[in-house]
Each structure stands twice: as C-alpha cells, then as structure tokens.
Amino acid sequence: MLKARDIHKKYGSLEVLKGVDIDINKGEIVSIVGSSGAGKSTLLHILGTLDKPDNGSVALEKVDYHQLSGKKLAAFRNTHIGFVFQFHHLLPEFTALENVCIPGWIAGKKKKDITDRAEHLLEILGIGTRKDNKPQALSGGEQQRVAVARALINNPKIVFADEPTGNLDSVNARELHQLFFDLRKQFDQTFLIVTHNEELAQMSDRVLHMKDGKMLL
Ligand SMILES: Nc1ncnc2c1ncn2[C@@H]1O[C@H](COP(=O)(O)OP(=O)(O)OP(=O)(O)O)[C@@H](O)[C@H]1O
Questions:
Q1: Which atom of ligand 1 sits closest to the CA of residue 42?
Q2: ipTM score assigned to the predicted complex
Q3: What's the pTM?
Q4: What are 189-204's pLDDT values in tens digits?
Q5: Distance 38 CA to ligand 1 centre (A)
Q6: Of 93, 96, 127, 134, which has the fewest beta carbons less than 10 angstroms from its beta carbon?
Q7: Which residue among 20, 33, 42 has the greatest number of ligand 1 atoms within 8 angstroms of its CB, and so is best to mutate?
Q8: What tens digit of pLDDT does each residue of 37-88 get?
Q9: Cβ–Cβ under 8 Å, residues 184 and 26
Q10: Domains and CATH numbers, the chain
C-alpha cells in the first residue's frame, strides 16, 4: 500500500536520511524505532507529506504524491492520510466532537455523515460521553483519543503516528496501544508509528530499526 524508495534528506550539511526504503501493507501496524536523531520523525514527515525528500519516491496505492502540489497535495493529505502527534494539537475553542469533524468538513463531506462517523469513533475510543467538552476539560489520555478519532474521520488509507503515547502515563499509553489494534480489527486500519515505547513496538506486526539515517536490515 505504501512504498518509499531511496529517500534522501539533508538539512544544510546534515544528511538526515541516506537512502531509506519502506513498504507497508494494508492493515499492518508497523513501528519504527531507533535512537534519538536517527531520522525517524523526518522520515514520517516525508511519508506524511509534511516535508519533501531531496531524492526518492513515495507512493500510496501507486500515487506518487510528492509529485502533487498546492491544493491537490493538501486535498490528498486530508482525505488519505491521518496524523497523530505526541501533542494532540486540538483546537481549544472547539468541542471534542467538532475537533473530530473538522477534517471532514474541510473534505466537503455531508455534515450528518461526518457527525455520525465522529460520534461512532468517539464511542469506539471510549469517550462518547465526553464529546461536548472542549479539550481543556479533558484528560491527557482523552485528548489523545480525540486526536486519534480526528485522524480517522476521513477514513484514511494510513495513519502516521509520531510518539503518540510519548506524553501519556503508562496506563493511558497501554490503553491507546490497545485501541490501535481494536481500530485495525474494526476498519482494517493501517498504522505506521514512530515510538520509543518498547511495549508498543513489541505488540506491532513488524518493527523497523533506524540508525544514522538508514533502515537496518
Ligand atoms: N527542520 C530541521 N532543520 C534542521 N535539522 C533538523 C530539522 N529537523 C530535524 N533535524 C535534525 O535531523 C536529525 C534527525 O531528526 P529527527 O527528528 O528525524 O530524529 P528522530 O529519530 O525522530 O529523533 P527523536 O527520537 O529524538 O525524535 C536531528 O539531528 C535533528 O536535529
């Protein structure tokens, strides 16, 4: 489903990615691990369209999306790619439900369909009763679940998660890990997760190890 070849990236004279290949199949939950500075987040940002590679290609179901630009790239990102970050980046003035709906509104889908799916996702994630609260009234774990629901609202082909549980205590982290697997079971959802969490890495279908800008075999 996701295929990247020979990804290179430099920041000034710093060579951060030195020819990375990656293949992810539909419905897989894959973790990327490696020491700090290995280039994991840079790779995830490139795969997720948030940054461009200097060289190499990235295709999602055969669409080489780094060839897209402007509005086409933004639309591709919004409809096909979900993101979960360490800090949830929820909008404080909107309720949990509204935060989940926003990417659906941007995609121009029917309001009722978006609301129904958002409510369903919040239910699955165990926070259905908290939907009318604004982020500040939610716990860290609840906020992160809202962020996961938001990532899933447009039924993305893949979700990229960068240290999704890095800011959570171990109980909340474990619960969120379990939810990724529940979502895979329910939607055949594909996840690529950068993590320092050993437990999450071990639960994954595959673990990819990065070192000094390269994927270890
Ligand atoms: N925008 C940028 N400009 C300059 N250097 C950058 C930029 N982004 C990342 N780097 C550098 O690239 C290297 C790889 O960073 P990256 O965040 O990808 O590593 P990482 O493996 O995700 O590390 P960590 O586990 O600490 O998050 C680091 O040396 C970092 O300082």
A1: 18
A2: 0.95
A3: 0.94
A4: 999 999 999 999 999 9
A5: 7
A6: 93
A7: 42
A8: 999 999 999 999 999 999 999 999 989 988 898 899 999 999 999 999 888 7
A9: no
A10: 2-215 (3.40.50.300)
Distances (CA, A) of 53 to 20, 42, 59, 96, 116: 11, 9, 13, 34, 37
* Rounded percentage of the chain residues whose pLDDT exceeds 90: 88
Q: Which of 8, 40, 210 to mutate to test the pocket of ligand 1 (most atoms within 8 A of CB)?
A: 40
Which pLDDT score is estimated for 123? 94
pLDDT tens, position by position, 112-126:
999 999 999 999 999
Q: Atom 5 in ligand 1: which residue has the minimum CA distance?
A: 11
**Separation CA 22–CA 3 (nearest Å):** 6
Atom of ligand 1 nearest to the CA of 194: 22
Rounded Cα–Cα distance for residues 27 and 1 (Å): 9
Pocket of ligand 1, beta carbon within 6 A: 11, 14, 16, 34, 36-42
**Can you read off the two tokens belonging to residue 40?**
């994991």
Which burial class, exposed, middle or buried, applies to 114 when counting CB atoms under 10 A from its CB (0-12, 13-18, 19+)? buried
Atom of ligand 1 nearest to the CA of 44: 18
